[in-house]
Specification:
Elements: E1 5-8, E2 11-15, E3 26-29, H1 32-40, H2 47-63, H3 71-83, H4 90-106, H5 111-141, E4 149-152, H6 167-176, E5 182-186, H7 193-205, E6 209-212, H8 217-222, E7 228-231, E8 235-237, E9 242-245, H9 248-257, E10 262-265, E11 271-272, H10 289-292, E12 293-294, E13 297-298, E14 311-314, E15 321-324, E16 327-329, H11 333-343
Parallel strand pairs: 4-5, 4-7, 5-6, 7-10, 8-11, 10-15
Antiparallel strand pairs: 1-2, 2-3, 8-9, 9-14, 12-13, 15-16
Helix pairs in contact: 1-2, 2-3, 2-4, 2-5, 3-4, 4-5, 5-6
Bound molecules: 5-S-methyl-1-O-phosphono-5-thio-D-ribulose.
Length: about 350
C-alpha cells in the first residue's frame, strides 16, 4: 500500500479517504487549487496530514511559477488559498508558517533553487511527522496495560498523519510491545471516520477492534468495558483545552463520570500557544449534506434543517494527560505546557 500522502514526480498523491474502506483509490493533485479542494472535500483529513498536504501544496504552487512572476505576491496568493481550506486544524497554519519562513530565507536564491528548497521542506515536514508520531506512540504506550480495552473517537491514525498516527499510534505501540489490547471504535457520525478509517487501519495492523455507534459509549463505560480513552487533537490552547472531532467532549465527560482516564495524543505542532483557552478556537461548520445524507441517500425529511459543527472543545479539566513527542504532560496544563513550549 502507498502512504497516505506522497510527493511523486512533481505531483501530490493521496489516498482518497472518502472512498475507504470499500475502495483504495489514489488522487493526483497537480495544482494548488487541486490540493486545496482535496483538503476541503476530505480526500485528505486529520490535522497533521492536512499540514503535510498544505506544505506540499505550497511547493507545488511555487514549482509552477515563471521567472517573470511577482514571486512575493504569487506566494501570498498560494498561502491564502490553502489557509481558507479548513479553519480548525492548527497544523495547517503551522505548516504554512514554516513554508513562509523558508520562502523568505530562500527568496534571494535563483528560482530553481528556491523551488527545490520548498519541495525539500515539505518532504522534511512529512518525514518529521512520521518520526514524531512514533515518539508519541512510544511515550503513550506506558499508559496502556496488558488486557486493556481502549476507546477511541474519529481517526487519529496513519491516515490522519504522514504515517503511524497519534492516538492510534499509542494503541499500536502498546500492541507492538506485546500488550493484548482491544479497541472500541466510535463510528463518529456524521463523516464516519471511526467506522470507515480507524477500523480499516486497525484491521490492517491486526489489532482486535469492535465498532460501536457513538451513543453506546456511555453504557459500555458504565458496565466496566472501557479501561481508558485516547483521542487526537486539532488544536490545543495554552491551558490544555482541546478541539477535536465533534463528540470528543461527550466522550471526555462520560469518562469523568465513570472514573476512566481520558488521554489526548498530539504533536507539538497542534498546540496554539497564542490562545489562552479554547474559547478562541475557530470551529468549522461543514456542509449540511454530511448530516442529512448517508451514502448520498437522504435520511431526514426533505425540508429538515440541520447543524454540522465538525469539532468541539473539551475543557482541560476533563483531560487526564496529553501525550506528545516530548513526553506526557499532566495538569495543571498552564504550567506543564509552558515547560513543554520552552523545550520545543
Ligand atoms: O474532520 P477531520 O476528519 O479532519 O477531523 C480529524 C480529527 O478530529 C482528528 O482526531 C484530529 O485531526 C487528530 S488526527 C491525528
Amino acid at each position: 500500500m502507498k502512504p497516505t500522502i506522497e510527493w511523486a514526480d512533481g505531483k501530490v498523491v493521496m489516498i482518497d479517504q472518502r472512498r475507504l474502506p470499500l475502495e483504495e483509490v489514489y488522487v493526483e493533485c497537480g495544482t494548488v487549487e487541486e490540493v486545496a479542494r482535496a483538503i476541503e472535500t476530505m480526500v485528505i483529513r486529520g490535522a497533521p496530514a492536512i499540514g503535510v498536504a498544505a506544505a506540499m501544496g505550497v511547493a507545488l504552487g511555487v514549482s509552477a511559477l515563471k521567472p517573470s512572476a511577482d514571486l512575493t505576491t504569487e506566494f501570498s496568493k498560494i498561502v491564502k488559498r490553502l489557509e481558507r481550506t479548513r479553519p480548525t486544524a492548527r497544523n495547517l497554519f503551522w505548516a504554512l508558517e514554516r513554508m513562509d519562513r523558508v520562502f523568505r530565507e530562500s527568496r534571494p536564491l535563483p528560482l530553481a533553487d528556491l523551488k527545490a528548497r520548498l519541495v525539500e521542506e515539505a518532504l522534511e515536514i512529512e518525514r518529521e511527522d512520521e518520526a514524531i508520531c512514533r515518539r508519541i506512540g512510544t511515550n503513550g504506550a506506558d499508559l496502556v496495560k496488558d488486557g486493556d480495552s481502549v476507546l477511541t473517537h474519529c481517526n487519529a491514525g496513519g491516515l490522519a498523519t504522514a504515517g503511524y498516527g497519534t492516538a492510534v499510534g499509542v494503541i499500536r505501540s502498546a500492541w507492538e510491545a506485546g500488550k493484548k489490547v482491544r479497541v472500541l471504535v466510535d463510528e463518529t457520525r456524521p463523516f464516519l471516520q471511526g467506522a470507515r478509517l480507524t477500523a480499516w487501519e486497525l484491521e490492517k495492523i491486526g489489532v482486535p477492534y469492535r465498532v460501536i455507534a457513538d451513543n453506546m459509549a456511555g453504557w459500555l463505560m458504565q458496565r466496566g468495558e472501557v479501561s481508558l480513552a485516547v483521542v487526537g487533537a486539532d488544536r490545543i490552547a495554552r491551558n490544555g483545552d482541546t478541539a477535536n472531532k465533534i463528540g470528543t467532549y461527550t466522550v471526555a465527560v462520560l469518562c469523568r463520570e465513570n472514573a476512566i482516564p481520558f488521554y489526548v495524543a498530539a504533536p507539538i505542532s497542534t498546540f496554539d500557544f497564542s490562545l489562552s483557552d479554547g474559547s478562541g478556537i475557530p470551529i468549522e461548520e461543514r456542509p449540511a449534506a454530511e448530516v442529512r445524507e448517508v451514502n448520498g441517500r437522504l435520511i431526514v425529511p426533505p425540508a429538515a434543517a440541520v447543524r454540522n459543527p465538525a469539532f468541539d472543545v473539551t475543557p482541560a479539566r476533563f483531560i487526564t494527560a496529553i501525550v506528545t513527542e516530548e513526553g506526557i504532560v499532566r495538569p495543571p496544563f498552564e504550567r506543564s505546557l509552558d515547560a513543554l513550549r520552552g523545550r520545543s
